[in-house]
User: What shape does this take?
Amino acid sequence: MEIALMDNLWVIIGTFLVFLMLGGFILLEAGSTRMKNAGHIAGKTIFTAGIGSLVFWAIGWGFIYGEGNWFIGLSDFFYGEASFSGEGLAPAVDFMFQMMFALVALTVAFGGFAERAKLSSYVIFAVLFSAVIYPVVAHWIWGGGWLADHGKQDFAGSTVVHLTGAMAALAATLVLKPRMGKYNKDGSSNDLAGHNQVYTALGVLLLWVGWFGFNGASTFAVADGFFGFVILNTQVAAGAGAVAAMFVAWALTGKADVPTTLNGALAGLVAITAPAGFVEPWAAVIIGLIGGVIVVFSMKLFDKAKIDDPIFALSVHGTVGVWGTLANGLFAVPEFSSGIGWGLPGLFYGGGFTQLGVQIIGVVTSGLYAFVVSFIILKVMDKVMGGIRVSEEEEIVGLDLSEHGGYGYPENIPHPNDKKGA
Amino acid sequence: MEIALMDNLWVIIGTFLVFLMLGGFILLEAGSTRMKNAGHIAGKTIFTAGIGSLVFWAIGWGFIYGEGNWFIGLSDFFYGEASFSGEGLAPAVDFMFQMMFALVALTVAFGGFAERAKLSSYVIFAVLFSAVIYPVVAHWIWGGGWLADHGKQDFAGSTVVHLTGAMAALAATLVLKPRMGKYNKDGSSNDLAGHNQVYTALGVLLLWVGWFGFNGASTFAVADGFFGFVILNTQVAAGAGAVAAMFVAWALTGKADVPTTLNGALAGLVAITAPAGFVEPWAAVIIGLIGGVIVVFSMKLFDKAKIDDPIFALSVHGTVGVWGTLANGLFAVPEFSSGIGWGLPGLFYGGGFTQLGVQIIGVVTSGLYAFVVSFIILKVMDKVMGGIRVSEEEEIVGLDLSEHGGYGYPENIPHPNDKKGA
Amino acid sequence: MEIALMDNLWVIIGTFLVFLMLGGFILLEAGSTRMKNAGHIAGKTIFTAGIGSLVFWAIGWGFIYGEGNWFIGLSDFFYGEASFSGEGLAPAVDFMFQMMFALVALTVAFGGFAERAKLSSYVIFAVLFSAVIYPVVAHWIWGGGWLADHGKQDFAGSTVVHLTGAMAALAATLVLKPRMGKYNKDGSSNDLAGHNQVYTALGVLLLWVGWFGFNGASTFAVADGFFGFVILNTQVAAGAGAVAAMFVAWALTGKADVPTTLNGALAGLVAITAPAGFVEPWAAVIIGLIGGVIVVFSMKLFDKAKIDDPIFALSVHGTVGVWGTLANGLFAVPEFSSGIGWGLPGLFYGGGFTQLGVQIIGVVTSGLYAFVVSFIILKVMDKVMGGIRVSEEEEIVGLDLSEHGGYGYPENIPHPNDKKGA
Assistant: This one.
């Protein structure tokens, strides 16, 4: 029973760390956007934590882990269980850890709404995403649904959390259209630079710390000290991502762009999320490094395609989330996988294309589900609500004033250029 | 012994988390006040951590937990014990966890001094509060004093920490009088808005994370995985508070005011502090939700009464602290209470008015003691020191310059309106 | 095995806390410098975490702990070990905890480069420091090298981490020369005040929390609950440092300077790092208090000597790091030292001058090695690279623009005075 208690202690520590990631997102998202929207974005994250927790408590857990079918769970709504047998995780500990992943996915999804969506439309979408989008994908892969039956691996949520959130963000981005002033008539784009890189850097650091819980506590057990290995992989992948992205930006533009460096660290973290428990450290370095390179070009491609992604959620959580899931199919080592009971060997270790194929199917179906359902919901809302985007005047003045009635920084004189809505 | 070691590990983790709350307070208090006082408020929190720790080490612990009488403990000053028997908590771990609560109470009390008290007056009050106000109430309820004898429940400090701190803040607010420019001659009030909502939101997030330790580690044990349940209650109450406050503000004013939303989350956390270990999750949702509603109206009432409360300490920690303590009398479940050895059933479970009555007596006597002693101390100081408030000129220029000799943001041009002292 | 698992859990918690210190450094360093360099300084810390992790993984660990000689380790490069025997620490956990110390030392070293070094020169130095400076000193004291053989005590890295980092910072400061506008022709100096004291204060709070892991987890074991005692010493020393520095500044200048108060807390933390596990709490209070006094005068002396130290790394980590190491020679208690297996009694307890002498030899040789090798490297780089400092124009405009191509705060109008490069 002592070890079971330690497992509980470990997973609740992981819960704290993942919740701390929301603090990282407050800073990352506020820092990556403009002053006139800063209060909105920061306050929205606290609201997200609130509404996401309530929906998860009421129905989210039940849809994911309840008794149900290949598609969805359908029991155990409104948590009411407090017993602990001394075996495995206490119900409340497991419940809390899972809740945190739902909150992170929702926070990622918000990225697509930044700087132009009505608060009311985000509120409604937040409820629906937490109720019928995230739980379905989570059920498929983690809750005993059809992808779990086919051996889909997702150590800590590359697909379930990051890809699902990013696909919802993509749908929002497409329905909302680019921010005012982002693209010029000649097709070129303007840099609507985020207002505070200290926030952004500290946000990345908090996310990095939180990721130790995100990946490390996904072992669910302390039994063989394996969590240390998962954390080591996480660390070197993040480091490789930051270094790679900085040097790529430096080589391409002559300047070691700070936001790109920061996104490189996040890319390393997202990339290693699926394979953290299945690969060797040298492979983690390569996976992070490639993640850091990919994210730079992905950001450029989305910008070229005029898909306006203020917080880079599509590239960081989407593109790199896909890379991480596939990388697991390439690099997973048989003995590590079997060591924790549910892995299949990667391509380089004789796993052949079967495992890689399962990973691809998982990514495609999960991503499609999240995107299509999000898109339909938002299109319907757009009709019913008379638009999910604020008016031009409101966008120019900023969401702090239009949606919340007061500036986030009431004593800072707005920058003159800001008046043009750009 | 393994389990005792795990208990120690759990409580020291709780210690870290509660200390992290001071980081939350730095941001919450600095963000809720004006730029010209930001360095003062932030630096003061580090001083608070310092002086509070030293006073607790020297005499605070002894007054709370020493051998003494119904009113106060009177032994075990100047910690000097390093042994650990393998049973229960190691002395130093217990000491550190208790110290953190004293620091939080003092930080709450500071709220009433914000933006107008001399640094010297806060320094003196901080010593006296840490020496003779907080320890006495803590002794009454947690240290074997007279309220403990009567079965007063305070799981993690709704009364001891939040109400005591808030009552000291109330005394300070009354003695100091409102800030310049807060109330107009016609009786209306101005919004001296805090200067940075990103700080405030991140502050709330850090406080929320810290509260997992505040409430969770107040189990003092890992033995039955019960801490997970306490944390689940904490989470849903905080979430319900944030959501409730946001919608109430939205309904009342047409705008989803950010500071109100954030105070709603804190209200949920304060409300669940007393009953976190005694109620079911559905009750935690209701307790948090009502906390989120109450805090909005309490803020309005204090403002109507011209009691100027810059950081909303009176409403968040005071009014809602009372609600949380009483809610425990309403919702406490017998088996949970007995499960951790010291509870009495709530009104809805057959506890009758006895338990509710004990809670009320505890709130009234503790609150009165903290208020009256604080008020007397501050009035005496006001006479002896030739005023505990800075001069009008100093208040206009800000405490950063007047008390510390330099601006907190030396490169930011002060907002023109700021010159008027408003 | 349960206890071994708990030890692993404890040390990995310590790892998280020490990594969180990098968040503290982001805020401390950005807050202590000017707006035009804020993005550079914040982003650089994330790059530091990245490059430092990769170098440590590749060769740092091997140079410290590999099989080698009295000077350096020479095996176990590129971590590849995942097994855990159930005895002691899992290899990956130990590896991660040690990695964090290397990152902190590098971050301290950066202090000397602030606001004037080319990014490229910092990048190259970061690699060399992580490869051949830090690991050598760490091998001498912690990895079985010659100072370890002579009984050098360094509980958690006063010498290995803080002094080594500070000596590299000193070398950088001397080679780079003072910032433009720092010293006047008449020999007087200007205060190039840091731009955000809220950042600085929160940074100190995060560092303080992180130090609980830095010192506490340096017990490497939970076995006797001793970590609580180490944390208690850490807390009261930090508190005493903050209080002492504030009152000294107040007495000297009539104003309770905020940055000085904050540096006092850090001084208390640095001072107690060596003796945290060897002294009684009353001694910890004295050690922290003297640290808080020393740091104020050290800052003044460096300024008098025209050694420009923007982030006060030389005083906080250098001067006070030496004090802490020597204080251990004065106050270490025999039974505590023997309790954890490797201590010698301090001067006051009959250890005589032998132990104090060993401490002095360790400080002098380690400090000299770090300084001399850093100085040579930087001088060679200065020749080869055509200068390691940015041009005057670049320094005036700030490193955000010159090195990274964009301001850290693109919407904040630079302060007029800032134009003069001061």
Observations:
- Chain B has one domain: 2-420.
- The domain at 2-420 of chain B is CATH 1.10.3430.10 (Ammonium transporter fold).
- Chain B touches chain A through 66 residues (CB under 8 Å).
- The CA atoms of residues 17 and 326 of chain B lie 26 Å apart.
